[in-house]
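2024-03-11 09:14:02 DEBUG pipeline.ingest accepted 1 chain
2024-03-11 09:14:02 DEBUG pipeline.ingest length=114
2024-03-11 09:14:03 DEBUG pipeline.predict start
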Amino acid sequence: MEKTLKLGDKDYRLHSSLYTIIDYRNVFSTELFSDIKKLEKSSVKKEEDLSTVIDTIFRIIYILHRPFYKQSYNDFLMSLDFTLLSNQGELENLTNAIGEMLGTFQKSTPPTNK
């Protein structure tokens, strides 16, 4: 699956496939879906959980963007503006893109009349 995500003034092409799982493990030495489960269980109210949530979200976006642009994770993070974290709409776009790309949730569809 491919999708373009707009963050700030930049467009990021994203691609997901079965290789995404392997690439995530190879780059970060942790399992993608285990990290997603940790996200679901974390409390954003705790400061240490917030930094973990932010790091995990951007790790996932990095891996999804990586097929199109080879750069280190640190360089990827350095290219993002810090104000992104204070923009609720941008953060919702990030999480929605992750859910769509990895199939962790599906958009709701209106019920059909039978």
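2024-03-11 09:14:41 DEBUG pipeline.report The CA atoms of residues 62 and 73 lie 7 Å apart.
2024-03-11 09:14:41 DEBUG pipeline.predict end
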